[in-house]
Amino acid sequence: MLDSVSLCEKPNSTSEVVPSGHIVPSQENSLNTIFEIAHTLSGLCRLEAKLASVIERLPSLVQMRRGIVCLFDHDGGPEIIVDDGRSEGRDARCGVRLPQGAIDQIVTTGRPLIVEDVALHSAFSPSDVEMLDAAGNTRVAFIGVPIDMDEKVMGTLSIDRIADNGTRAQLEDDLRLLTMVASLLGQTAKLHCLFVRGRLMDEEFRLQKQLSELKPHGRERKKVQVDGIIGDSPALRALLEKIEVIAKSNSTVLLRGESGTGKELVAKAIHERSARAKRPFIKLNCAALTETVLESELFGHEKGAFTGAFNTRKGRFELADKGTLFLDEIGEISASFQAKLLRVLQEQEFERVGGNQTVKVDVRVIAATNKNLEEAVARKEFRADLYYRISVVPLLLPPLRERRTDIPLLAARFLKNFNNENGRALVFDPSAIEVLMSCGFPGNVRELENCVQRTATLAQGSSIARHDFACCHGQCLSAMLWKCGPEEMARQPSPTISLPARLSMPPTEAVTPVQPVSSELTPLGPPGRPVVGAAKVTDRERVIAAMERSGWVQAKAARLLGLTPRQIGYALRRHGIEIKRF
């Protein structure tokens, strides 16, 4: 870190020396430095490198000992932190270097913060004072300004320095300069977000254009055959043609469709037709594991990372290096783990659980879900940035009711497999095929396979006829489960994939939010019946009511109040509310 002594050792001809002995940049020197910062931010390099370069140039603009730039993610947590140009990262663990109380106040109020002595200010805890080396007789001043993006605070720029005998006017002069730099940083961060999103959408458009240009060529056209995928219907042929095109790129693919449509078979077909075919194909069902187990399975863990971790273990991302990783049921992962997964997909790097060494991999990710992710994003159950990252090439798998001509072929294959496994020679009567063709099969291919195996197991003759099916006797458990006949299933529309540039929010749901805590803590939840019954309760009582209702879990209370976890933490400290531990 640069201190005032080192700054004094390198005087500039365009700077002025104040009586305190510190160098104050002249107006010309300040303009030159701001120009250099603007030029750096317009360059072609990583955002973290740009921020580090800005911090390196700040000592030429203002008197400082240390500077920090912090950008937040959509949930209000630190995503990118750069200080002194020597350390940068995308890990929330970097947050220990921040004076948390001061940062919270800047983000919550959206206003700059000037402190002449951090040891005497309520926004700085004893740990913050110790971190800033402000103990004893050392007076440390602090200046922090918000970084705005579309009228929303998305980060902070802050500096600290040894307090001298200068006036508050000097601090305010530095504040004006830092505000200019923060404005440049906000524009750069906004352009970075637009660039990342635009690059993903361009890739999607390019592949979609290739798919649309893929047209039949008469007799010269060769049918695409995929092992394990059976059928000859137009819907299935169109799907196989798309698989052939998508396999040629390394873009992330999102398989959409109802349960039982064969998403794992399609993922494997894409891998086997790609340049990664000779590399590993690793698969994982995200819904089958808890968050902690899922993190260990995907990223691996170091020896001693937790109880039972007797050896270092590679995760699925490492095992799939240079190959393909299939993540099934990706729509079921928790919000906190979505942020961790987003970082890996963006940077292709991660750290094992319990480790600090970064592991870089080259993995193509194919995700699958039967969930409506657009609605999940609108309800804030699924991160929008992760949605855009995994949905580069969305591929919709048709349900079985849209490819009924494939039912006889599929049923014949399932019956053949049953005969081989059980040493029988059953065949279908024409009446049996009529029964299968009339069924809705809301469980799709998986339900058809179960139906064939169940009927073949109970069949007493050498062939399967109409009367062998449970549905002909009103005993089909699947029909009881779905509670609808084949006609109703046929009328149900297939799920559609919408890729809007901006996701629209659904109508406000009937929830019971807490009334606003303070005019500073906006926006809050939609208007409704407050949790506390009285109409004139205080802000402190509303915060306590939300905390008690959420079991003193700050993240849950923040959702009830319509705040971020950072804002609820600031409200607790401002009202002096002690958090209960259970």
UniProtKB/TrEMBL annotation:
It comes from the Bacteria. Keywords: Activator, ATP-binding, DNA-binding, Nitrogen fixation, Nucleotide-binding, Transcription, Transcription regulation, Two-component regulatory system. Residues 508-532 are annotated as: Disordered. Gene3D superfamilies: 1.10.8.60, 3.30.450.40, Homeodomain-like, P-loop containing nucleotide triphosphate hydrolases. SUPFAM superfamilies: GAF domain-like, P-loop containing nucleoside triphosphate hydrolases. The keyword Nucleotide-binding applies. Residues 229-457 form the Sigma-54 factor interaction domain. Required for activation of most nif operons, which are directly involved in nitrogen fixation. InterPro entries: AAA+_ATPase, AAA_lid_NorR, GAF, GAF-like_dom_sf, HTH_Fis, Nif-specific_regulatory_prot, P-loop_NTPase, Sigma_54_int. Interacts with sigma-54. It comes from Bradyrhizobium barranii. The keyword Cell cycle does not apply. This is Nif-specific regulatory protein.
